[in-house]
């Protein structure tokens, strides 16, 4: 099975993983304390690893001579198809952990389903990711509980983060025509099926953390069409500076 | 035993089932779950273990250097406590 739709689908998953990992790495060396710095960097490396496998597969699917590195480093923000939530700034640690908890919860459902895909490569990459994401989720969920039930200040910061980020969660559950075909062939994940499960679990987490999900929020969209928030271009600028200045540079 | 990075915890890792938990270092954490997760990230990243204990450092009761004489020297001249006065069965490998 080889189609532009499958290439696009794989590229989208790769972009979301890469952009999120790049964001998380911004905490490296400036984490709240040494142990947590290492923990988050570890998590970012897991996600970079997943991005790499996905880009490698996307490059093979496209079969136009572009390498995984070309896909990662030589495309502009309008060509990136990642979810908007992945590119949102880290803010304070509460904001990073609120974002991460929502992403981990989504990713665990998503990759668990993708592991059943008829596409063996995607299924293989997904199966490898499940254990990693299970751990990431344990880590981010426990931080949300700590912030939400901690001091007045930590609670306020976590609530502000949730108010800021909730509007980027609707995009996950949209479906495009391209994707419908892949879903019908049991290749892509049917996001409408995991929506209620995700919402139930994340709502329970926030309830236990004494946080309230903002109501009447207008959900943002555009990532999969390459329409991003202003933050992505700066992230790519930093990430791509070296390969663009010194093409084919080697370690 | 506390600073801005939280209290200290001691980490013990078990390499294989049935083997003793071996002390391998310490870390900072603010609660039990964080201590366990940090221990996983700091001490088992390269497949060092399959089970972890974390213990608050201040929960450990330790002998002090001054105790060495009264604690340990009296056993030095009691060779009869060592199992050297009867043959060991061949199947016992670690004694």
The CATH superfamily of the domain at 8-69 in chain B is: Phenylacetic acid degradation B
In the CATH hierarchy, the architecture of chain A is Up-down Bundle
Q: What's the number of structural domains of chain A?
A: 1
Question: What would CATH call the class of chain A?
Answer: Mainly Alpha
Q: Can you count the beta strands of chain A?
A: 0
Overall structural class of chain A, as computed from helix and strand content, comes to: mainly alpha
The largest β sheet of chain A comes out as:
none
CATH top level label of the domain at 8-69 in chain B: Alpha Beta
Provide the structure class of chain B. Answer: alpha+beta
Can you walk through the features of this model?
The complex is a heterodimer of chains A (251) and B (95). With 251 residues, chain A is mostly helical. Chain A has one domain (4-245): Ferritin. Helix content of chain A is 67%, strand content 0%. Chain B has 95 residues and is of the alpha+beta class. Chain B has a domain at 8-69: Phenylacetic acid degradation B (Ubiquitin-like (UB roll)), CATH 3.10.20. Chain B has 2 helices and 3 strands, in the order E-E-H-E-H. Chain B has helices spanning 32-43, 68-72, and strands spanning 8-14, 22-28, 51-56. In chain B, a hairpin with a 7-residue loop joins strand 1 and strand 2 (22-28). The longest helix of chain B has 12 residues, at 32-43. The two termini of chain B are 37 Å apart. The chains are: A mainly alpha (251), B alpha+beta (95).
């Amino acid at each position: 099975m080889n189609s532009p739709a499958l290439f696009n689908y794989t590229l989208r998953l790769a972009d979301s993983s890469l952009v999120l990992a790049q964001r998380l790495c911004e905490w490296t060396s400036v984490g709240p304390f040494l142990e947590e710095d290492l923990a988050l960097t570890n998590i970012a490396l897991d996600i970079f690893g997943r991005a790499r496998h996905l880009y490698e597969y996307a490059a093979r699917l496209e079969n136009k001579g572009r390498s995984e590195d070309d896909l990662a480093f030589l495309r502009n923000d309008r060509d990136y198809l990642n979810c908007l939530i992945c590119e949102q700034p880290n803010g304070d640690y509460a904001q990073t952990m609120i974002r991460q908890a929502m992403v981990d919860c989504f990713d665990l459902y998503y990759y668990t389903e993708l592991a059943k895909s008829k596409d063996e490569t995607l299924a293989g990459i997904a199966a490898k990711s499940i254990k990693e994401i299970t751990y990431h989720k344990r880590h981010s969920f426990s931080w949300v509980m700590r912030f939400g039930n901690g001091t007045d200040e930590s609670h306020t910061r976590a609530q502000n983060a949730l108010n800021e980020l909730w509007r980027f969660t609707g995009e996950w559950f949209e479906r495009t025509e391209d994707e419908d075909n892949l879903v019908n062939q049991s290749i892509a994940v049917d996001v409408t099926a995991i929506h209620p499960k995700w919402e139930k679990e994340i709502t329970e987490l926030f309830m236990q953390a004494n946080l309230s999900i903002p109501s009447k929020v207008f959900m943002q969209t555009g990532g999969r069409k390459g329409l991003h928030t202003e933050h992505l271009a700066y992230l790519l600028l930093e990430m791509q500076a070296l390969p663009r200045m010194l093409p084919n540079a080697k370690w | 035993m506390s600073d801005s990075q939280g209290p200290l915890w001691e980490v013990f890792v078990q390499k294989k089932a049935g083997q003793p938990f071996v002390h391998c270092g310490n870390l900072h954490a603010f609660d039990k779950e964080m201590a366990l997760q940090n221990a996983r990230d700091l001490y088992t990243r390269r497949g060092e273990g399959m089970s972890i204990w974390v213990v608050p450092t201040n929960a450990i009761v330790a002998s002090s250097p001054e105790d060495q004489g009264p604690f340990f020297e009296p056993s030095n001249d009691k060779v009869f406590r060592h199992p050297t006065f009867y043959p060991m069965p061949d199947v016992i490998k670690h004694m």
